[in-house]
């Protein structure tokens, strides 16, 4: 059963009731009967978007059927978790690349938030992988939208519905030109109708089924944990590695993250010893040709064979003087790769635990205070400096980690008192202005939800006029403001 809060622990959740349909055919009547309705998936939202504020909750958990698998696609109901999609595909030698780190998220949830993951650097966010969507509109109309079938004309989209075509005037703002954008409604000249619903966080329609594009064969993966002596060295190395085809993603953990791993014993638990001079660690995920064996990879690394994918990556590490400190999880060593991934995951866990403890022991108003911002990689060093200066000048303890290959990281405050939370919010709003100035997006992958800071960041990005244009889209499709009211923007 769904709960009254989501992974953001947004306070004050309450509902008019819960409905758990067993078939998608029940949804139009549920929508027609409701005054307000919030569709939820796994409630892993980090923005409060899956926390009901008096609406009826529509859980998609029983809509868990895989409807069809073909050579290049999979069609699933909205409640199928990402992990089940991967398992079903793996049995056929295929895979779905743009998965978020939390693989318990549902198909409908990742579409509604245009989720992204580590491998977005190589494969993009969820959006381009959606080939078709079945959606129920606020008036109960059922719509199946296939990519490529309906495009905007003269800044308008015509949306078929039971009450006739709905004329939607599209927002005129220019979206940031970066690889991850989860910042309100998609809008672009000549856009595809399907893109209006992807990333709309449940406010324009309820996703009942999705067809995702898939890839095969499944690549062989390997991983490298690279301790770097300085931030500048790490960023230069990431710049080199971004040019290598084998690199699917690069994650980063700053010095404070490494301290947290040490304080929590996670480094010992996963048998990792960082050299004392480590300022920042990178976790490089590699995709190699399907069927590459451990022996092949080992030979290619030893022979310094710059002609092979993994050989070239190692040459890059050698050229920057970090190869000797690097630990590789070679193809087939799933155990070690799992440990290195768990080490990276222990960072947000460690920070979240500290926030939870401070909330319990110091002040109940203390909450997670974090951002999810992306800038073009060329501006990343500048942005990191801005995060550091902005937090340090306010006397805050903080840690920064994330998807460095995308220029997308998560600056997090480690609050010691409630004032730290207030100062952290102020810093994050200032970062949002800097990110926009640098051509990035202050809302990269988690969406906007109900979070006041995220809604303020969205207003900062597109201005009041942009928000009003989104409201006009919502009003056209949902005149009674029935679906997910208060999510992304208020009425
Ligand atoms: C540990 C952890 C790691 C995470 N890592 C990532 C990451 O790497 N990348 C990333 O992008 N996110 C990440 N997230 C956030 C979260 O997993 C994603 O936002 C995910 O897409 C939400 O899916 P869900 O099924 O849990 O949706 P929910 O949280 O239930 O809902 C999210 C929003 O989508 C709407 N919604 C859900 N289902 C539907 C539907 N069927 N129709 C219409 N609207 C719907 C809801 O109304 C809500 O506004 C992480 C979260 C956690 C807890």
Give me the Rg, rounded.
Answer: 23 Å
Mean pLDDT: 95
Number of helices: 14
Outline: globular
Q: Roughly what fraction of the amino acids lie in strands?
A: 15-25%
Q: Which ligands appear in the coordinates?
A: flavin-adenine dinucleotide
Stretches where pLDDT is under 50 for at least 5 consecutive residues are none
* Main pleated sheet: 7 strands, antiparallel
Structural class: alpha+beta
Strand segment tally: 17
Q: End-to-end span in angstroms?
A: 29 Å
Spatial sequence of strands, sheet with the most strands: 14-11-13-12-16-17-15
Helix and strand arrangement:
Blueprint: E1 17-19, H1 27-33, E2 37-40, E3 56-59, E4 66-69, E5 73-77, H2 82-90, H3 107-112, H4 120-123, E6 130-136, E7 142-146, E8 156-159, E9 166-169, H5 193-197, E10 206-213, E11 220-228, H6 231-241, E12 247-254, H7 255-263, H8 266-269, E13 280-288, H9 294-302, H10 309-319, E14 327-329, H11 334-361, E15 373-374, H12 380-392, E16 398-403, E17 408-413, H13 418-437, H14 452-477
Parallel strand pairs: 1-3, 2-3
Antiparallel strand pairs: 4-5, 5-10, 6-7, 6-10, 8-9, 11-13, 11-14, 12-13, 12-16, 15-17, 16-17
The structure holds flavin-adenine dinucleotide.
How would you describe this protein?
There is one protein chain. The protein has 491 residues and is an alpha+beta fold. Helix content is 33%, strand content 19%. The protein has helices at 27-33, 82-90, 107-112, 120-123, 193-197, 231-241, 255-263, 266-269, 294-302, 309-319, 334-361, 380-392, 418-437, 452-477; strands at residues 17-19, 37-40, 56-59, 66-69, 73-77, 130-136, 142-146, 156-159, 166-169, 206-213, 220-228, 247-254, 280-288, 327-329, 373-374, 398-403, 408-413. Strand 8 (156-159) and strand 9 form a beta hairpin. The two termini are 29 Å apart. The model has no long low-confidence stretch (mean pLDDT 95). Bound molecules: flavin-adenine dinucleotide. The site of flavin-adenine dinucleotide has 37 residues, from strand 2, helix 3 and strand 10. Flavin-adenine dinucleotide is lined by residues 6-7, 38-46, 49-50, 60, 78, 100-102, 105-106, 108-110, 112-113, 115-117, 201-202, 206-207, 445-447, 484, 487.
